[in-house]
Each structure stands twice: as C-alpha cells, then as structure tokens.
Amino acid sequence: xxxxxxxxxxxxxxxxxxxxxGALWAEENVTGILGRAITISxxxxxxxxxxxxxxxCHGWTRLCQVIAMTNWPNGRISITDNKTQGIFLVTMKxxxxxxxxxxxxxxxxxxxxxxxxAKLHISDEAVSVPGLRFLSQPNVSCSGGSVTVSCxxxxxxxxxxxxxxxxxxxxxxxxxxxxxxxxHCQSFTQQHHQYYCTASHTQGTKPSxxxxxxxxxxxxxxxxxxxxxxxxGKIYTNTESCRYF
Length: 245
What we know:
mainly beta; Immunoglobulin-like; eight-stranded antiparallel beta sheet; five-stranded mixed beta sheet; 20 strands; 10% helix
C-alpha cells in the first residue's frame, strides 16, 4: 500500500511538472521596463490548436492563477491570438516591480492543458534623449498662426516628467510642465528665440535638441516666423499659409 501511494504521488508530480511536448513554447526569460508595456509571444501548433482558448497564468505550476484569457482582457493585461501564425500575444501594460515573477502560457484542451513557463524580470531604464516633432499638418497648425511641438523619450522607466524652457543669455526660464510647446506670435518678444525640452525621472535628466525661432514679421493683421529643428527641418508659418523646407 505504501509503495502504491508513493507511485501515485510520483505520477501526480510528474503530471504537474511536464507540459505536453511541443504543443506550446515561449521565451523562458523576458525583461520589461518599469512603467511601460511588454508583449510576450506564446507559440503553438496552429493546425491543431487554432480554436482552443488561450490564457496567461500567474505562477509556474498547474495551480497558477489565470489572469487573462483570449477575448477576455483583464485591465492592463490582454491576449491577442494570431491563429494563422500560431502565436498568441500577451500584453502587460504599466509594469510595476510587483509584476516580476513566474508566469505560464496555457491552452485549454481536453485532458491536460499544455503550458510553458516564463519568468518576467522588471528593469529600471535610463531616460533617452527626447525626440521632437510637429503635432499638426502645416495647413492645420498655421491657420491661426500657431505651431505645436511635442517632446517624448522613446526609452526610459515611467513616469517621465517633461518641461519646456527658453534659453536666454542671462538665465534659462521654464515655460511649462508639459511635453507640448505652443508657438504663436503673441508669445514672441524678440526676433530670435531658442527653446528646449527636458525629460527627467528618478534615474536622471536628458535635454532635447534646440528649437530655433526666427521672427520675420509681426503686425496686427499678419505674422510670420521660421521654426528650425535640426533633426526635422524647417517650417515657415504665418496667418495665411505654411510650408515645410
């Protein structure tokens, strides 16, 4: 009887630790950035498992907690199933330190669900130099003689705080605590202005390239000025029309 019980428990442990061979696989170790999103690819045999329910489980055994399923998003966690390629994508948004740990890709099938374990690591990433871009098309931005420039870092742990400042010979002055700079004639007091954006978080601070503004005409019924950003080019704006160079 004792020998039979030992064999039974050994069989149970074997069932709980070994997934169905070749049915499901993924990267065993993945790393996400604090505050940002990560997408984990879980691969399966498309010809056999297209119609089966897929799920994402918190834990590495078959007693893990299912936290998202196909067509059943769970807050910041969702699953997209590409049945043609045989991949279901698990997306986790706004990653936090507590999200680190073991997870499992899984599929519901009669009998024993195939599963694959993956360990999620969370990393704190330095902020990158923020990139600049014009938010609106010229004919939209310039109909009122104004242009908006946005500033955003492609990399870095979130949250990232943005500020816009004007560079002056004496002392730089902060303009706003947002990632958007609105340029319009009413704000210009001199012929030449220089602006830059600063991206900062707990790991450090990075300034953007300079935004150069040259005012060519300021009048009651008309205004024209040139905005130059080295990585983008130039835009000429007035109350009548705009064009890129």
